[in-house]
Amino acid sequence: MRAPPPGRVQVYVGKEGFTYLGIDKLVTNDTVATIFLPADSAMLNLVSSIGKQIRYDMFDMPNNVSLNVSKLHIIPGVALKSTDLPVDKAVNATTLLGPKLKVFRAKNGTVTISVPGRKSGPNGPNVATVLEPDLPFNKAIVHIVDRVLMPPLEFVDKKTIMSLNVTYTGYEKSVDK
Questions:
Q1: Strands (DSSP E) found in the chain
Q2: Is residue 144 part of a domain?
Q3: 65 exposure class (CB count in 10 Å sphere: 0-12, 13-18, 19+)
Q4: 42 or 31, which is more confident
């Protein structure tokens, strides 16, 4: 693979994962969507935080965890640019997985994405910041983010949590009550 242009964030791992998991079949050239694609650094941080050794190991997690995590990063039916977001007001948008994401644009232009009901995941706080906004991809808009968001607890079962080397009690405590 070629290196990205100077100053661009690398996203090869996320793109490979979307292809491996079949997301590219769900989000085709004709799909209108907003996609929050984690940067390579975010993907590799998640790999090490769940005790995996090779980046491709995270695509083979049990019980569709990888697919669900990927679907959580896609808002179908709308191609939101950062400039479409109101300033200092959260927008709640339903993801391809089902739960909503809270998307927020601050006065300084910083855009953050969070999962209501989840304080944190195995890779830290469950809030991602957009590193590179508004990248057109066919009929979709892609935003490169600094963190892999994790689904709400009801989308991940206890057996899967145990397989990620995260204690169930700790994972359960990461959910806002």
A1: 33-38, 74-76, 91-94, 100-105, 111-114, 120-121, 124-125, 127-137, 140-145
A2: yes
A3: buried
A4: 31
Instruction: Report which residue type is found at 125.
Output: P
Cα 61 to Cα 82: distance, rounded to the nearest angstrom: 32
Q: Degrees (nearest 5) of the Cα angle 41, 139, 82?
A: 55
Question: Residues near 84 by Cβ (< 8 Å), separated by ≥ 6?
Answer: none
The reply to whether 6 falls in a domain is: no
Closest residue by Cα to residue 35 from 153, 152, 145, 147: 145
Q: What does the pLDDT look like over 64-78, one tens digit per residue?
A: 667 777 888 899 999
CATH number at residue 74: 2.30.180.10
The domain in which residue 100 lies consists of 12-170
Number of domain units in the chain: 1
Instruction: Give the single-character DSSP code of 147.
Output: S
Residue 1 domain flag: no
168 pLDDT band, cuts 50/70/90, is: very low
User: Is the residue at 71 inside a domain?
Assistant: yes
Q: How far apart are CA 150 and CA 122, in angstroms?
A: 8
pLDDT over threshold 80, residue 33: yes
